[in-house]
Amino acid sequence: MNANEIAELATATVKGSMPFPEIVGKLIANGVEYYHVDYALRPFSFYSATGAVVTAPLLLEGLPRISKRFDAALLKAAILDSQQHGQAFRAFCERAVTAGVHGYFLRSKRVTYFGRQGDQHTEWFPGTRPSEVSE
User: Out of the domains of life, which is the source (predicted)?
Assistant: First the structure.
């Protein structure tokens, strides 16, 4: 993994200077298997399949406190706004912490959001959700 390029991609995410799908593609090209955002400590942590880790700061001053209550409906509305209207990353983060999101993992075309009490919601990238398995 190229730590400098990954840090630049983290900065581009915060600034909104590059489309999110392009950022994800470049992270994958850099060997990033998954990444984690922690709204309490405020880092991005990028992980490779070989165990390498690159950490970059999540430079978002003045975010609201993380709500104690996890509100999946508020989170889903924020996700939908990002998908359909290109909501800015900062606005998404503000809405996510207001919905009780402590952090999230992005891995393999899905994002798993988690709250302070262990609540979670998994959101698949549009068109990538596996079909339901019938028994």
Answer: Bacteria
